[in-house]
Protein: Class I SAM-dependent methyltransferase
Amino acid sequence: MMSLLESGTLFLTLGIFLYGILYFSFFREKNNQKISKGILFFRNNFVRVIAGLSLFAIIELTTRNIHHILFAFLTVVLPVAVLNLVAALKMDKLTEGEVNDYRVGYLQNNWSDKSYKYLQSKDWDNTVFKKVHESGAVKLSTVEANPSVIVSVSANRAQHELSLFHRLKENYNVKLICMDANNAKDQIDEVDQDSRFIYLDGDRDAFNLPAILDEIQIGQVDIILDKKGALWHNSKKVDTFFEIAYNKLSPGGVVIIDGSQQNKVLTRLSFLYYQLFRTIIYPSELSTLNKIEGAIGSGSFADQHFERIDAGEGIFRTVIFKKKH
Structure:
């Protein structure tokens, strides 16, 4: 006769199994939009995580009786194996590109807005601006004839850039260029006529920065911003990015990236929560620094040609790379 713990485990895993089968079988289209392969992929991984935790809990809580352990193993593994098979049959491929699809009807749609609202609830823009200013690593011009040129290579909807522009324009002479901006026109109508704010719509690859700057007749820039953009998506091209940045930065110019310090357990839980409820309760993505840290160590182009300065801490930490020569 099964113990209470075994019965509970069986009930839990069968519930997950049935939910998965129903989800994969009947979720075809919604409002004539294809269901994201990324959703299926993440739901499948969610099942795996729950199953793994269940197995771990059972092994820890039950006696070392081999019967209990084998029962727990089979109860968890068999349904998950079937779900994996069903998921694989229903997806052409499981790629990061599919997972990170931002089109309407897909998992990551409106991610930018949701992420921005979460960060605003934490006063992120104000705090980061203050910490970067306090670092003393960034010098901005107050001379009317010689503006500091700032380029954001991954502006997306340009919310943070617009917020930054409003903070700077009253006290400094700056020109802010937003690259790789998508669907941001409504966000920036209020500054659209301000020649100090340049909005480049569409897909603009940061690795084509020299050509893009030539297009708008900009020679060198003073600050390059990259928040979960070019480097985040191209962690194998870090040296190339910094070499391009080095060549386009003015003397003493800087590259600024996000470097959020996050609790790994909370990050994972927040990630799972978002898959279920589409709500961000804690940063659920790795920072750019986390993505590229192994590529900016000793001997790297960034290490040899830039001075690293950390500003702020926790989710407010940014990392400043100041051009050495």
Remarks:
- Residues 25-38, 90-102 have pLDDT under 50 and may be disordered.
- Strands lie at 29-30, 33-34, 148-152, 174-181, 197-201, 221-226, 249-258, 306-311, 318-323.
